[in-house]
Design a protein that fits this description.
Structural class: alpha+beta
Strand order of the largest sheet: 3-2-1-7
CATH class of the largest domain: Mainly Alpha
Radius of gyration: 34 Å
Number of strands: 12
CATH superfamily of the largest domain: SLC41 divalent cation transporters, integral membrane domain
Strand content: 5-15%
């Protein structure tokens, strides 16, 4: 098939890169270089082309006017073998009317029927070269890497087709060509069994890396359903802390079966980590630590690290220990590399001896606070004799922070923290966790009704007061909720503590007066239209000012009291604060009415 020049860029050399990827053919507009002193500008691409194609072509046009070759991120177009893909369809394609692709030779020809742009483009196997008949033709080269920026809807069928055909080469390429996280994303639509069959084409270490990016449900199904020996090999390649977390989610029978297949050292390591209570530093740590003897020189240390590197989760820091595994100091990776000019210097002369550490029984929240305060990438865990037990890396700390924030948010909303995800937790258990607080709030609301009952006489004499009860309750509850939320979050982030109670109360008094005064003016304007006289109308603004002030003080004080008692301030949930302020609001409201109206 004779290719035609690309109108408008006949004075430029365009190079494209092509190779089959995962059973599809990809074409990448890679770079365009200037070959003429007076290039003509590129025309606008026809409507219906992908947005990324527009931007890439426009970037190419701009780059072609420069003195140096311009390199652009690739645009990837997919073609399903044996299918007709008109451009603009959800499945992608190249032209408005596509030519069917021969599945046997995996080549494609497609024509754009819009004048003023690409006349034709042919895709061939790797290694095929189409000699240009003029500078505007497209040259195919298999020697350069192809960028990846667009996924089409045929991707999962292609994976399933490769599995059905047992296409080992392309499955291996799929596993190895991309970032492990991306690879995991592209397998989201596969069943757990299909996912595992694809993973079996990756080396064990890479298989473990990809596996880490799956959601928990998919991981557990794979661990439960697949061959025990294969799963044991996978667990061996995983970081120690991650595999312990997964095994805790499995039933005891399956865990025993898998542990029997693991090396003895890994079994001991898993059992030791499982012995630590959940939510402690010991349960979070990994035992894969870069530790070196203090007597080693820089050159010896680098040689030893090169042997350990593949088994380590991280080498941000090198922990220096003595013969009894006691932590003596720490050397950062940067410090070690910067000492390459002095390779006979010993680690004991380079290390920092003032090391921030955690103990295995420390709560995970206090560990996260240390990592944040000292801006650490990892924190060592030591026992009472300062023997190095393991480290907690920053990714585990991020998980802790996310978990603690989730728990606090649930408590603030009056829900007992969920140990499992919302979609995974049993409905009866979910109902129980929500029902506990709903029951408490029910009785709090019952107290409000009892308080209201005490003012039957006033309600009969001044029926118009009933109209403002929702307004009074709402203003007090909302102000209390705001104060409680602000104080709880500030305490969680470490911005304030119980010792700051005087400052907190003073600020809440000022804010309460300002907010209460503003709402009082609005309430007074409404009360003048409803109350029998202007004197009676004063009940509403006085009550609003008092209730908002009481709400602010109550919302700020209760979390401080809980913290002082050693409890989680988040237990003082917003609905609970609102319930208490509701009772105060009713009492304040009718006592003000008695005083003003008489």
């Amino acid at each position: 098939m004779q290719s035609q020049p690309v109108p408008g860029i006949a004075n430029h050399s365009i190079q494209t890169v092509i190779r089959p990827t995962f059973g599809n053919l990809c074409v990448s507009l890679k770079r365009i270089s200037r070959t003429n002193q007076a290039p003509t500008p590129l025309p606008r691409p026809p409507l219906g082309l992908p947005k990324s194609f527009h931007s890439t072509v426009e970037a190419a046009a701009a780059g072609s006017r420069g003195a140096k070759p311009a390199v652009f991120s690739a645009i990837v177009l997919f073609f399903k073998a044996g299918r007709e893909l008109p451009f603009g369809s959800p499945n992608g394609g190249l032209a408005h009317v596509g030519t069917p692709v021969a599945s046997s030779s995996r080549h494609a020809a497609a024509t754009a029927h819009r004048p003023g742009f690409v006349a034709s483009l042919t895709l061939l196997r790797p290694g095929a070269r189409m000699a240009p008949t003029n500078p505007g033709n497209l040259m195919l080269s298999p020697t350069e890497s192809v960028g990846y920026c667009m996924i089409n809807t045929l991707f999962l069928p292609e994976l399933r087709e490769m599995l059905a055909e047992q296409n080992v080469a392309e499955l291996e390429e799929f596993c190895e060509a991309l970032n492990p996280g991306r690879t995991a994303e592209y397998m989201e639509g596969l069943t757990p069994d299909e996912t595992w069959r694809v993973l079996m084409h990756a080396p064990t270490t890479l298989r473990a890396e990809i596996f880490e990016y799956f959601d928990l449900d998919r991981k557990l199904k794979i661990l439960e359903q697949q061959d025990a020996q294969q799963i044991a090999d996978l667990l061996t390649a995983m970081p120690a802390d991650d595999r312990v977390d997964l095994l805790q989610e499995l039933n005891e029978r399956r865990v025993s079966e898998l542990l029997a297949l693991l090396p003895a050292a890994d079994r001991r390591d898993i059992r030791r980590l499982q012995s630590y209570a959940d939510g402690t530093a010991g349960a979070l740590m990994t035992t894969e630590v870069a530790k070196l003897a203090e007597r080693l020189t820089v050159r010896q240390a680098l040689d030893e690290l090169s042997k350990q590197a593949e088994q380590l989760e991280t080498i941000y820091y090198i922990y220096v220990v003595d013969d009894d595994e006691r932590l003596r100091g720490i050397v950062s990776g940067r410090r070690l590399v910067s000492s390459l000019g002095r390779t006979d210097v010993r680690l004991q002369d380079l290390m920092e001896t003032d090391v921030i550490t955690a103990e295995p029984q420390d709560h995970q929240e206090s560990v996260a606070e240390k990592v944040e305060r000292y801006n650490l990438l990892a924190i060592p865990v030591v026992d009472e004799g300062r023997r190095l037990l393991g480290i907690i890396t920053h990714d585990d700390v991020i998980d802790v922070v996310r978990e603690e924030l989730t728990e606090d948010a649930q408590r603030i909303a009056a829900v007992a923290p969920l140990e499992e995800g919302y979609l995974r937790i049993n409905l009866l258990r979910l109902s129980w966790k929500r029902g506990i607080w709903l029951t408490i709030l029910f009785f709090a609301a019952l107290l409000t009704a009892i308080a209201l009952r005490q003012f039957d006489e006033e309600l009969q004499l001044y029926a118009w007061l009933v109209l403002f009860i929702p307004l009074i309750i709402s203003a007090g509850g909302n102000s209390g909720t705001q104060s409680a939320t602000l104080v709880i979050t500030a305490m969680t982030s470490g911005d304030l503590g119980v010792k700051d109670w005087r400052t907190i109360l003073l600020r809440e008094v000022v804010v309460g007066l300002l907010l209460g005064g503003f709402l009082a003016l609005l309430g007074w304007a409404v009360a003048l239209a409803v109350a029998p006289d202007s004197n009676s109308a004063l009940v509403i603004p006085i009550t609003l000012l008092s209730v908002v002030l009481a709400g602010c003080l109550c919302g700020a004080t209760l979390p401080l009291v809980f913290k002082r008692l050693g409890l989680d301030p988040a237990l003082m949930s917003n609905p609970f604060v609102a319930g208490i302020v509701d009772i105060l609001g009713i009492v304040i409201y009718f006592n003000v009415a008695r005083g003003v109206i008489g």
